[in-house]
Amino acid sequence: MSTPARAHPARTAEESRICELFLPRIGIYGRRHLRDSDVDDFCQDVILATLDAVRSGKVAAENLGGYVLGICRNLAAGRWRREEIGKRAIANVAEAPAVQEDPAPAFFERWHLEDCLSRLTERARRVLRLSYCEDHTAEEVGADMKIETGHVRVLRHRALAQLKECLASDPYGAAAR
């Protein structure tokens, strides 16, 4: 015998009367303002919010009709807003232009990178190659090059700084302008 996943508190007679009185009206409002597939969830959300307000004493019995109408308006507007935001997001993705890569900038970027790498010392290039291309740790690079691990880290740091500075410079020089 299966047990329910969540125990529901026993409804009082007043809460049952509220459900009987307002559930049909909430359904009419939902069918008028939402798609048919959302009406059942909408009704449940409005009734739960209403019963929570009644249980906590936030709303008096004489104001219950206006409160239910306000909850209906707010929930329907929120669902409509979320749906519109989703539609706009899908439209924006569909309208995004296809990116066509120009091979010329990639060639010039590669040429600039190769030029900057050639300006490094052989030792610095080897540290970078072992660290980033062959994915070795500083300890492994140090053992391979027969230098201390700390020195590998210093060489790598300085080589990266020099490479970054070179890549940030104008590859054509100021004379080309």
Which features characterize this protein?
elongated, mainly alpha, 2 domains
Helicity, in percent?
A: over 70%
Q: Which architecture of the largest domain would the CATH scheme give at its second level?
A: Orthogonal Bundle
Any idea what the radius of gyration is? 34 Å
Q: Tell me the CATH topology of the largest domain.
A: Rna Polymerase Sigma Factor, Chain: A
Q: How many beta-strand segments?
A: 0
Strand content: under 5%
In terms of per-residue confidence, which ranges show pLDDT below 50 for 5 or more consecutive residues?
1-7
* CATH domain class name of the largest domain: Mainly Alpha
H-E order: HHHHHHH
Distinct helical segment count: 7
Oligomeric organization of the protein chains: single chain
What value does the average pLDDT take?
Answer: 82
Structural class category: mainly alpha
Morphology: elongated
- Describe the biggest sheet? none
Query: Termini distance?
Result: 84 Å
What is shown here, in short?
By secondary structure, the protein is an all-alpha fold.
What does this molecule look like?
The chain has 177 residues and is an all-alpha fold. Helix content is 72%, strand content 0%. The protein contains seven helices and no strands. The chain has helices spanning 13-33, 39-56, 64-95, 103-118, 122-133, 138-145, 149-168.
